[in-house]
Design goal:
The complex is a heterodimer of chains A (486) and B (345).
Chain A: H1 3-6, E1 26-27, E2 33-37, E3 47-48, E4 55-56, E5 61-64, E6 73-74, E7 79-88, E8 96-104, H2 125-134, H3 147-154, E9 161-166, H4 175-182, H5 184-198, E10 203-208, H6 212-225, E11 230-235, H7 244-252, E12 267-271, H8 272-284, E13 290-296, E14 304-309, H9 314-320, E15 328-333, E16 340-342, E17 355-360, H10 378-382, H11 389-395, H12 401-406, H13 417-421, H14 428-478
Parallel strand pairs in A: 1-14, 9-10, 9-12, 10-11, 13-17
Antiparallel strand pairs in A: 2-8, 3-5, 4-7, 5-6, 7-8, 13-14, 15-16, 15-17
Helix pairs in contact in A: 2-3, 2-5, 4-6, 5-6, 5-8
Chain B: H1 17-39, H2 42-64, H3 69-74, H4 77-88, H5 95-110, H6 123-134, H7 136-140, H8 157-166, H9 175-178, H10 183-192, H11 197-200, H12 214-230, H13 237-256, H14 264-269, H15 273-280, H16 291-311, H17 318-335
Helix pairs in contact in B: 1-4, 1-12, 2-4, 2-5, 4-5, 4-6, 5-6, 6-17, 12-15, 13-15, 13-16, 16-17
Classes of the chains: A alpha/beta (486), B mainly alpha (345).
Chain lengths: 486, 345
């Protein structure tokens, strides 16, 4: 397997990042209310530790993880819990989800127990994992997977190799780029903490070739730390190079098994933003109560990156950017390739909110009329999972689960590259996104049907065997007594 | 304030089927121009007749199938079919030939199977094959290329139109004077008559590389095809595999017996080898779809073209080779699914 093959697929698309990276990171304005959805991370919703009318302090834990995959939540401000009720959430496409609503008293009084650990090397790797969990740290690349859960499932003999993902390949998003420019030392600190927690032998920080300033800042921070375990790897700025599986292929020249995890090949991947959040938690005692959010697009007066407390309404961030322009037409959370389209801005920033695009019709032109597929195969040329989207599309109508499974529908990462290049303007990613759960369910049903069939066959065999034994015994009994028996 | 929502991705490249087809048409222009230079304006009349028939047939089929007119009439695919078919017909062929062939291609080969994107066979080649088996005499009556010593029947535009529409030449000319077999046809006939290859190729319709005139037309086709490659409208797999297979077959047989078999250069520069490789076999709708599948598909067309030309009953084999390989596409596609990321080889 060659590196060339692994780099196959993907797109070089206009990055649209210059507008938001002109100014340094600024602090978003504080607001009166903060809405903290309990299910803003992957896995199970957190369980509230507070009730309405409780006073809370800044950085105080307000919800604890449910058993299994889940995460802690902390108050971003000091004030009073005014409600625990369903509120519209961006990660639920604007549908209401149970949230803790906190009224800000504006005094930012800190929670006493949030003490910093001065030296993480003095605690054991297990304690380090537990400590990271208590900081409410989740993956900040967009999926918001609880970091401690990922670390625990990645532990292996000799420790996994650590990969820090600074390849921010989606158009418009620049929060990682400005983070690497301005807070490279946090990233390196977090990298060392992660190396310790994982007993990992080395750390590779991947960064794209089109962000020279961020590269220089990161190099300087790595040189300053003088830690021989940490190296920087520059990767080509191809979308979706920053996808976990694609980045692992690019950096390590190895593929994650389709039914496995990076840990299966001894790699654990974390976003650079996550590493910086870990540094702030371990060094400064600040749990994950704020993150950098890119606000950009032709639909706001001024684009930029904002240090934003979790729970801040989108509308407040938009106001910080000078409000909407007349050209504002669509609101996206995330990038233009995989982001979520939202109907209104009365939504809180969550841990997964890396970017808000206020798009004009110029930014995101409406799709053209859908035509039939002409099998040109442009889609298969750009598919980073090496699929044949044109064939998947064919086998969707009518739904042919055997062929869809053979052609790897479940291996689709929904990156949207096929959509992007399709001359027939077919919304392939959307179709695949909808079809994947259907196919998974059908395959599950197949599997359980197979299992039932196997059980049935086994039962018949067992009954037949018992029957045969029974007959043999009967025959033995009927035998004349003078014949010898065994 | 509410905003409209849509599924991701939110930005796409604004490519279109119409753009793809338009570029294919532009890339065919050099071929058409040189064809007119060597064989007169007949081709232009055939293209106009064919294109009109194609659009009318398309509109009729869309109406019968209750499909919108505008997007499908504007996508240009019917025009491409018409031009490719017209390029295969003798320039002075009677009007009903191009009209019936094109109508058959659009109505039966394309729309009966579900229209754009759903036709398993290349419509232009179906139309040509139907004409070839139904009216072989008319289809093999080619004109002598310009620049030959024999009496060159120069027809004016008006005479050309009149000849195509009425089926009879101006009174000053006879069919014998203006027709000539194609080089591939002539070669086959001469060899059958027991001539050696050198004798067979001594006739004035043979040029330096292949057929006189044809060699230049084919070079123009090559230029158009390279432009399509450069613009990424087509990819290299099918043309390279098809031409490669022709070269391998022709070289092998030429090395075994140069007296009986024409060499690779002749095969590349005569007949429809290059038109087939860059414009016909590359029709993605009826071709295999993975890279590996396209290599097999192209190579199959190349081998079949050579076999039909050399040992079959027709002088050129591209059309039948393409149709036969169209037939094999589902099989090829089934066994050439690429390895998926994260799956074992």
């Amino acid at each position: 397997m060659t590196a060339r093959e692994l780099l196959a697929g993907g797109l070089r698309i206009e990055a649209h990042k210059q507008r938001s990276t002109k100014a340094p990171i600024r602090a978003a304005s504080l607001t009166e209310r903060y809405v903290i959805p309990l299910d803003q991370h992957s896995g199970l919703p957190a369980v509230p530790l507070v009730k309405p009318s409780d006073r809370v302090r800044m950085w105080q834990p307000i919800a604890q993880p449910a058993p299994g995959i889940s995460a802690w939540l902390h108050s971003p401000v000091s004030g009073e819990v005014i409600a625990i009720e369903p509120r519209p959430a961006p990660h639920r496409l604007g549908a209401p989800t149970l949230s803790i609503v906190i009224a800000n008293d504006g005094r930012d009084r800190r929670f006493e127990n949030a003490a910093a650990i001065v030296s993480f090397e003095q605690i054991s790797p297990n304690e380090a994992c537990e400590h990271i969990a208590r900081g409410g740290i989740v993956g900040l690349g967009g999926a918001a997977f609880p970091t401690a859960n990922k670390l625990e499932s990645s532990l292996c003999e000799n420790g996994p190799q650590l990969l820090l993902n600074g390849a921010e390949c989606e158009p418009y998003i620049s929060c990682d780029e400005v983070l690497m420019r301005e807070r490279a030392e946090d990233i390196v600190f977090g990298a060392r903490a992660l190396l310790h927690a994982l007993c990992s032998p080395n750390c590779t920080i991947a960064i794209e070739d089109d962000v020279p300033e961020a590269q220089a800042a990161l190099r300087q921070a790595v040189d300053k730390a003088a830690d021989p375990r940490i190296r920087i790897k520059v990767v080509p700025a191809i979308y979706p190079a920053g996808g976990e599986r694609q980045l692992i292929a690019t950096v390590f020249d190895a593929e994650v098994p389709h039914d496995g995890l990076p840990a299966d090949i001894g790699v654990v991947c974390q976003n650079v933003g996550t590493a910086a959040a870990i540094a702030r938690w371990i060094r400064d005692g600040q749990p994950l109560v704020s993150r950098i959010v890119t606000v950009t697009g032709d639909g706001v007066s001024e684009a930029g990156n904002w240090e934003t407390r979790i729970g801040t309404p989108f509308s407040s961030l938009i106001a910080d950017c000078g409000g909407y322009t007349e050209r504002m037409s669509r609101l996206i959370m995330g990038g233009s390739m995989m982001g979520t389209s939202l109907a209104h801005d009365d939504l809180p920033v969550v841990k997964a909110t890396n970017c808000i695009i206020a798009a004009s019709a110029l930014d995101l032109q409406p799709r053209g009329l859908e035509m039939p597929c002409i099998r040109c195969g442009n889609c298969s040329q750009v598919c980073p999972a090496f699929l044949l989207p044109q064939q998947l599309h064919w086998y969707l109508q009518p739904f042919d689960s055997d062929q869809l499974a053979r052609h790897g529908l479940l291996d689709c990462i929904e990156c949207g590259c096929c959509d992007y290049v399709c001359p027939s303007q077919i919304p392939l990613a959307e179709r695949f996104r909808e079809a994947k759960p259907l196919l998974a369910r059908e395959l599950d049903a197949h599997l359980s049907a197979d299992a039932a069939r196997a059980r049935f066959v086994a039962r018949n065999e067992r009954l037949a065997r018992l029957e045969a034994e029974h007959r043999a015994k009967l025959a033995q009994k009927r035998r004349p007594k003078n014949e010898p028996t065994s | 304030m509410t905003f409209p929502t849509a599924p991701a991705p939110h930005a796409v490249a604004h490519d279109s089927v119409g753009r793809v087809m338009r570029i294919v048409i532009y890339a065919l222009l050099p071929t058409v121009a040189l064809h007119v230079m060597f064989f007169g304006a007949g081709l232009l009349v055939q293209i106009v007749l064919g294109a009109a028939t194609a659009l009318i047939s398309e509109a009729l089929a869309l109406r019968l199938r209750h499909k919108p007119f505008e997007p499908f009439l504007k996508d240009g695919s019917a025009i491409v079919t018409a031009i490719l078919l017209a390029l295969c017909l003798p320039p002075l062929a009677p009007w009903w030939l191009v009209v019936s062939g094109t109508a058959f291609a659009i109505l039966l080969a394309k729309h009966l199977y579900g229209g754009l994107g759903a036709n398993p066979f290349n419509p232009a080649m179906v139309g040509y094959a139907v004409l070839l088996v139904s009216f072989p005499v008319q289809l093999l009556q080619w004109l002598p290329p310009a620049g030959m010593d024999i009496e060159q029947a120069k027809l004016s535009m008006g005479e050309t139109i009149q000849t195509i529409l009425t089926g009879s030449l101006p009174s000053r000319l006879t069919w014998d004077a203006v027709t000539s077999p194609t080089p591939l046809d002539a070669l086959r006939t001469n060899l059958k008559m027991g001539m050696t290859m050198a004798e067979a190729q001594a006739a004035p319709i043979f040029g330096a590389l292949g057929g006189r005139g044809w060699e230049w037309i084919n070079l123009a086709t090559l230029a158009g095809g390279l432009a399509l490659l450069q613009l990424r409208i087509i990819r290299w797999h099918i043309p390279v595999a098809m031409l490669g297979a022709i070269v391998v077959c022709a070289s092998l047989m030429y090395m075994i017996d140069p007296g009986t078999y024409a060499g690779p250069i002749f095969h590349l520069t005569s007949g429809a080898s290059l038109l087939g490789a860059f414009f016909i076999a590359t029709d993605p709708i009826s071709a295999a779809t993975s890279d590996r599948g396209r290599l097999i598909y192209g190579a199959g067309i190349g081998v079949l073209t050579y076999v039909i030309r050399t040992w079959g009953g027709y002088p050129d084999g591209v059309a039948f080779a393409v149709l036969l390989m169209n037939l094999s596409v589902p099989l090829i596609d089934r066994y050439t699914i690429p390895r998926i990321y994260g799956h074992a080889r």
